[in-house]
Specification:
Blueprint (H helix, E strand, L loop, with lengths): L1 E4 L13 E4 L9 E11 L1 H9 L14 E8 L11 E4 L12 E5 L3 E3 L6 H5 L2 H14 L11 E5 L4 H13 L3 E5 L3 H10 L3 E3 L5 H5 L7 E4 L3 H11 L5 E4 L17 E4 L4 H5 L6 H14 L7 E4 L5 H13 L5 E5 L4
Parallel strand pairs: 8-9, 8-11, 9-10, 11-12, 12-13, 14-15
Antiparallel strand pairs: 1-2, 3-4, 3-6, 3-15, 4-5, 5-7
Helix pairs in contact: 3-4, 3-9
């Protein structure tokens, strides 16, 4: 089967950083689905893994943590899907990735593709939808009010995760949603997704939220170390702070005076540790599909970079690394 992989961690400008390769088609075991991949999207985690993780000697490492496609075979223990089912999912960081014609994934972390979306639109959603949902409802517990506050601040509002978080907070809670953006086009994107207010994260945040009321919830999706002092200043007492990025340091002692709790979200935790509630990710994705088909949520596809190949994936990684992506970058199909 055709795939895109690498053997050595290299800058994305190097042609060997991602290479078109041929690999054997894998065979499903246990609760695995073998999925014929129709579209993938690229996330910051793809670029982080490429920079940090080498392939095993003599082997190829295949990235990719989002896919939409059709089940073509199942392992002997599969009960939830059958060949021919259209699915979407975010995969497992401990296994080979979705940048391949055929991919193995545990059925428990797979959802049924929204019928109203095409393959690229569907592939844009899984990883960010799981991350945003778990962050808001499982970690920050946004349906439990913070005394004296009815607002959430989503930092990095035009990014992939934030683009879903803004929609979820606006559509499924009664919170006032404040997003951040630093360019006119990204500010317009965040407003269009449903944010009540948009502030500029290239400027101090606390002064911009004073007239809007102290947010009880802050969800930081990027540059947390840059914004931490401002978050401490603006968050409401007894608030809840969540983050998903990788700050070099995270000194949370300043939150003590306000009794603010700090919550990490990593959507790969359930599959990494095979947790007893691992199947909740499949349930979550099915609910996202239902909300999309009902018109409550929309895809966050920002750009379609064309067929799945090394050249297009290098372009996508470069855009993600630039920090200027809006929504999700998607690739669809393997060119003949």
């Amino acid at each position: 089967m055709r795939a895109v992989g690498y053997q050595t961690s290299l800058p994305i400008q190097d042609p060997a950083s991602l290479v078109d390769i041929d690999l054997p088609t894998p065979q499903p075991l246990g609760r695995d689905l073998l999925v014929h991949v129709h579209a993938v999207s690229v996330n910051p985690v793809d670029t982080k893994v490429r920079k940090r993780a080498q392939a095993e000697p003599g082997a190829w490492k295949v990235l990719g943590y989002d896919a939409a496609g059709i089940v073509v075979a199942t392992g002997p223990d599969v009960t939830l899907f059958k060949p021919g089912d259209a699915v979407f999912y975010a995969g497992d960081i401990t296994r080979s990735g979705t940048n391949a014609e055929y991919h193995l994934v545990d059925e428990r972390i797979v959802g049924r593709k929204p019928t109203s979306l095409d393959w690229p639109q569907a592939a844009a959603l899984p990883l960010t939808a799981i991350t945003a949902w778990e962050a808001l409802f499982d970690r920050l517990d946004v349906q439990k009010p913070v005394p004296g506050s009815n607002a959430i601040l989503v930092i990095g509002g035009a990014g992939g995760v934030a683009s879903i978080a803004v929609q979820l907070a606006r559509q499924l809670t009664g919170l006032t949603v404040i997003g951040t953006a630093s360019r006119p086009e990204t500010a317009a994107w965040v407003r269009d997704l449903g944010a009540h207010h948009v502030i500029d994260h290239s400027k101090p945040l606390a002064g911009q939220t004073e007239t809007l009321g102290a947010p009880g919830f802050v969800f930081s999706t990027t540059q947390t170390d840059t914004h931490l002092a401002e978050i401490v200043a603006l968050i409401a007492p007894q608030g809840r702070f969540g983050l998903i990025d990788d700050p070099a340091t995270l000194d949370v002692i300043a939150f003590k005076r306000k009794a603010v709790s700090v919550h990490w979200e990593l959507m790969f935790t359930r599959p990494i540790f095979q947790t007893v509630d691992m199947a909740e990710q499949g349930v979550l994705l099915n609910e996202v599909a239902r909300l999309v088909d009902a018109g409550t949520l929309r895809t966050t596809l920002g750009e379609n970079f064309g067929p799945i190949n090394a050249a297009n994936l290098r372009r996508a990684h470069a855009l993600i690394e630039s920090g200027r992506a809006r929504g999700k970058v998607v690739l669809a199909g393997f060119a003949a």
